[in-house]
Amino acid sequence: MQLQSIELFAGAGGLALGFSEHDVAHQAVVEWNSHACETIRRNKRADVELVAHWPDVTEGDVRIFRYDAFQGIDLVTGGPPCQPFSMGGKAGGFLDPRDMFPQAIRAVRETQPGAFVFENVQGLKREAFADYFRYILLQLEFPTMQTRTGEAWARHLARLDSHKAAGARSEYHVDWRLVNAANYGVPQKRMRIFIVGFRVDITNPFEFPIATHSHDALLLDQWGAGGAYWERHRVARRNRPARPEGIERKLQGLLDLDPAQARLPWLTVRDAISDLPDPERRPDVELVQAHRFQPGARSYAGHTGSPLDEPAKALKAGDHGVPGGENMLRRPDGSVRYFTVRESARIQTFSDKFIFEGTWGETMRQLGNAVPVRLASVVAGGVCGHLRAAYQAPMLFAAA
Q1: How far is CA 191 from CA 32, 129, 181, in A?
Q2: So which residues are the catalytic ones?
Q3: Are 234 and 137 within one domain?
């Protein structure tokens, strides 16, 4: 069963690609950044798989987007701009004009979708934003209970609290989860919040997909008998790092675990980019598009790059271009360089066929803001499977 969706705050399309992998047809793709829009258009023109079937991107302010034609659509998805809550930004929260959660809530209110999925940074969980985060969740649970003219958000929150305490029936079952992308096969330690809601008439409780990868499994892969990780990458023993202190005791504890608890190893930067030539040492070789050396990387306190044999640190968009350490590779010898666009795209699990439009800084900003495609696909698979089951067994789910 094909599902229909609206994708808001699309960026370069990472979340939309994840849903497209699960037979979701986007009826609208909305994004305001011109470079991100051109990235989507370029891939659509190039007939890149999945993107080729998207509608023409709507470039503009989501605050004026109309939902008249999308009543009762299956899904509303998107990543409202995260800068208001990002620990790497100014963290203005609800005082930041870039806070687009009110528009995400408006989309739910005006379309009444079967389900919604919104992604954001872990900074949304900060203590300073606790009341506002609860306010977001309550608005999504009761989207038709709107603010009154001139009403402050704190007053609206109090009304929502009273409404729920009085036993009002939820309009949506809403849940959220903080996840580490590395636990789902992304070569990056990227912590993100997913907020998922299902309309109450079609669902029973939703369970987030379980983790498939782990740090413990990576330790076993690297330092267990035979050193399978190093052998797989043909790293000679003399070039391997020293065994971590206390690793023997740690490994013994891991070997004693129930096999049913086994996970796949976290993927590392080396796993993601080892087949690409070093762009600094072989600048004349560009076997893959956008794999070019960018000078200027330097290491300093708090910005030391991503080690080759661990998942990357979370790529960031930056306030004025690309920040130092988050977008750098740190080689085993301690030297650093910026990740190329293509390496960054691989770390965000975009296909090598996917082309990014704009200058290096603009492209890296798109990648820093993107949802890793593989993580998006995992969440989308769970949500779409749950929604399809609800549609196919309406009597069972309506009683929930």
Answers
A1: 25, 17, 6
A2: 82
A3: no
